[in-house]
Q: What sequence folds into this?
């Protein structure tokens, strides 16, 4: 019947979206591995599918991917992606016999998370000094979604004149 067909299409579409999301996550993981200097290991382990260029790309593509994490207009998207990458990195590092390229990518993800959080904290501080409550609110929401950060609240309270 039409209802059953609609339900199947919804299921297939949901599976397709999960596959696309997983592919995006793996592309970023590979970009972090390249950034960590592990490109040679990935090239030597290229699968028979021959789609190494699509999966691993080149330096220009890696730079383009990494630009997401420094674009203030896309900070919420970057926060969501970094949260997913942190979860993947945790899964990879918890596995037995983690490969060196995996460890390099995991370490690069950790460092990028620290840099990203620092940029957001600095943005929050600048907005606080400018008295821009909207920017403070947006930045705090992104930080909260990123890692449930209580540092922003503490930092804001400490920046009040009565605590200086």
A:
């Amino acid at each position: 019947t039409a209802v059953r067909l609609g339900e199947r299409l919804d299921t297939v579409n949901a599976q397709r979206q999960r596959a696309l999301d997983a592919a995006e996550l793996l592309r970023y993981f590979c970009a972090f591995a390249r950034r960590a200097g592990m490109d040679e290991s990935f090239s030597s382990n290229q699968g028979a599918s021959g789609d190494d260029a699509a999966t691993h790309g080149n330096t220009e593509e890696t730079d383009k991917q990494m630009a997401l994490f420094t674009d203030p207009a896309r900070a919420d998207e970057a926060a969501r992606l970094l949260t997913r990458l942190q979860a993947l990195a945790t899964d990879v590092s918890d596995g037995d016999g983690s490969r060196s390229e995996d460890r390099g990518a995991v370490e690069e993800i950790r460092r990028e998370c620290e840099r990203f959080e620092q940029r957001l904290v600095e943005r929050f501080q600048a907005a606080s000094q400018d008295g821009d409550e909207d920017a403070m609110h947006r930045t705090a929401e992104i930080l909260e979604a990123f890692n449930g950060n209580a540092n922003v609240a503490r930092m804001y309270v400490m920046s009040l004149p009565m605590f200086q």
